[in-house]
Amino acid sequence: MCGFVTLIDIRSRLRSETLIKMRDRLTHRGPDDCGQLIEDLGDTVMAMGHRRLSILDLSTTGRQPMNDKSGRFVISFNGEIYNYIEIREELLLKGYSFESDTDTEVLLNAFAEWGQDCLYKLNGMFAFAIWDRKEKILFVARDRFGEKPLYYTSLPQLGIAFASEAKALFAHPDIEAKVNKNVANDFINGITSYSNEETFFENVYRLQPAHAMLVNDKGEIVKKWRYWLPDYDTDLHKGKHADLEKEFYDRLKKSVQLRLRSDVKVGTCLSGGLDSSVLTGMVKQLHDEGKASLGNSYSARFDDDPTISEGAYIDSMVNYKKLNPEFIHPHAANIIKESQALHWHQEQPFLSASMYLEWCVVRRAKETGTTVLLDGQGADEVLAGYQYYFPSHQRDQLYSADLFSLAKNTYLFNSRIKREAHRYENSERRINSSVALDTLGLSKAALKELYLRIKVRKTPEDDQSAGLPKNQRYNGLRTLLARGLLYDMLPNNLHSADCNGMAHSIETRFPYIDYDLVDWCLKLPNDLLIKHGWQKYILRQAARGIVPDDIRWRVDKVGFAAPQDNWLRGDLKEWAYDKLFNGPIVDLEAYDRSVIESFWSKHQSGEEDVSWALWRWISLNEWLMLFKDNVWKSA
User: Which residues contact 53 (CB under 8 A, 6 or more apart)?
Assistant: First the structure.
């Protein structure tokens, strides 16, 4: 896990001090070692700068940029190749030799052997650039789900620059930090899309997940392509559900075991929810089998707010598996002190104060000597965990006339969630007890479907986004899963996790999005995702003996939630008011003081929780302040 910059630039323009300045904007990503390289190409130069966070082979033999033994290829790499041991063994049989125990050297030799097709060998999270000295071509690639970031921009007159974070680009004297007004306006209107390359910075682009690129020695992009897409239209798995549940368990455990490969201490994030509890329980199981060491679990708690608190579930898991817990109690007042730093590292505004919880958790991990954390991101998008997925499954069952299962799922889901809501004061802060369609909602859906069948007489095929099912109307659940995986929740969550983790030199790993596991899960029948009114049904079955039953059969899904509604009425009230009504946001075309004042009054009176709408403006203002104070240039 590291940070790097790579440039094709005009020879007379790029100086070594510029490269080093760009590289060292990423010191938080790689505090352990560094390297740089500038090669003369005639009128241009190829330059690489690298900061290393040592995870595998802590010696200097892992220093980057790294050359292969032939001298033809040189690499700058950020990420981890989890199956590097297996690939290394395959390359040894082909006659390759190795001077280090790093996955970087394995990746470099894999490219030397298989070229661009090496991407299909890699099980990991990665962004890398490999320069081919013979062909004078730069090969750039990013992992399937976008766990590791990579940004790029064109240089004036000629050239291109890549970096693990946008802030490194702005250390170049000819790259300006400007607001992308279209993206900022979309954010204010509640739209955060990862379906294209645009970022919050004008003329700065993200290489999309599962994409690769070839760049020539003039800095021109000669080819860009997507090398992987989920296939939601393949035949579903056949066979007994018990057999599929067992195979799922085995695949997930293998994924966890791969992600425990490390020469530094590994811990787990433990929110109290099903996803993180299963991962933590599997690590403990592997420890008990003598196959892994047991690090700390890290949890954020709000014991003074019982409606939001996950403390009881966290304690249940800690006691059940006899874990080594670390508890963090985030305080609202500290957000004021750290908000600018948080926005500096995120490089964009964000949707809720919950971002601060993750910030506090990874910081505590660093303070206690942990360098790698396993996290539960991706389970919801792969296994239909978000509660707003449930109405889509209801419609699918209605349209396919699976009425008995529809009635059973609806009754069990609704009765459980309403019963759970009665356990909490002001339960709407924790649970949306009306998320599923009721009888009236289902009746409307049935009438709409009847009308479409009579009027249209065939299933319309909507404009496709890559990777979505062909027949979207009758695959509502799978369409939502695809959108969440590719363009919505998962890319957003992975971005924040990477930025928060690397701000504190912490590597986060995500076992639920092992690509072999995901490709297999895409073929699961819907009734192993949602069954008997339970979402993520197959995960609950696999969790037997790994987590206690009160977590295994949890009804509610709180997520990693902060009590921002109360914070904005309490410790953050004065600060939030200032952020809403002063600063650069007041100059935006979309800014309407009267509307924001109305939201503010509603929230402060308790009439309605509109904290999410207010937070968008607060966060955008904080991010814009970084331009006003010129920190993107001055750091």
Answer: 1, 2, 29, 30, 31, 32, 371, 502, 505, 507
